[in-house]
Protein 1
Amino acid sequence: KSGYTIVITEDKNHPFQLSDDLQKQAREAVGDKKDSGEKAKALFQWFQKNVTYGKLGRHKYKVGYRTSKEVFDDREGVCGEMASLYVAMARYVGLTANYVSVKKDNRDEDVVNACAGVKLRNKLVLVDPAYKT
């Protein structure tokens, strides 16, 4: 058990929303993998094939970040939205994952970015679907 509670709500302020389709996709993406690292990698690979960086769908929703469900439905989002979707999917498949605000990127440049932090083998590993790293 992951210790997380699945939240399905109409409250647009909750970023980690899970729909039935999103849950199904998370399960399919990881398949029968048991190892946390393999699960995290499988979700990342699913992202690379299925979610693009962009904000075309934002006009359909509120101003600000969309929820994980909205980003999943649109299959595109900006860094923080992609991070929220990754965290929601990772938590659903039993990974310990959190949203991480990033001020310096992997090239040591000042940025305003967000990614997911996944606990793997007692270490925090940053997963950034927007940066594809």
Protein 2
Amino acid sequence: IPPKITNWKPVIEDDSCMAVLKVLNNEPDFSLSEVLRFEMEYFGYYLHSPLDLYHIGGNSSIDNAKKTKSAKIEAVVTNFEFAVTKKGKQYGRLKISDGVQECLVMIWTNELSIQEAENLVAGAGISLNVDYDDTRNIFTLQRNDKIMDLIPR
């Protein structure tokens, strides 16, 4: 085999391919928020935890909340949408992620009216008190509870 073939190394000339390699190798050219945006755009999911953008404390995971049935969760909003009950009342369907799991939190009409809009936007770091219904595998925001925002790093 000629040395031209055995010593061949591919050359990547496309800038987007170089960006992918830098992100996957955790090179310091990118901030965590840029890496997260890249991962969601190109992979459709996160390899890194979006919760690392915020200061968190304690064991406030989704898994812990499922075990205790009523707990505080610190998470990042992945999606929020309004829906309407059979009786015509508006409620919210909040999808959140703690970096390991994703879950759905129902926000009923009374609690929905006291929430701040910026805490319901995708990417927002939030802390909320929830109750867990294991028969339906969903969380509901506790009565008269307000969602609090997490402090960014």
